[in-house]
Please model this.
Amino acid sequence: MERVDIRHPSTGKVLFAHEELQSPDTGEVRLHPGFADNLAYLRMVFGRPMVVTSCCRSAAHNAAIGGHPRSLHVHDRPNHGLAGAAAIDISATDGVYRRELLRQALDLGWAVGVSRSFLHLDRRDLVGMTPIVFAYGGK
Model:
């Protein structure tokens, strides 16, 4: 299995390590073309740490955790015409941090799902879907 780290394009510094992005059950990282570049850019512009709670998921893992059946996290049987995962969840328990990451992501064209403990960020626009903002109830 090929190691996938997302690095700063100028410095080579690891912005997101393989271990942060991998599917918990398979260890695989398969990202839709352009997703890694968009994620690196968001991290560089945001300029703060981003703790990943979920990125790539196998279809089996997604089903086991009750993920949406057409989740943009699924990498091994991607939905919506994707060629890999195009979503990431970032821990965001602090309100100020959550607001700033939300603002920056929206400014850069990301779709965002908001909960009390994390932000779901995805690039559905990479396959022609309209970016949206939505809320998770009770999470």
The helical segments are 18-21, 35-46, 59-64, 95-107.
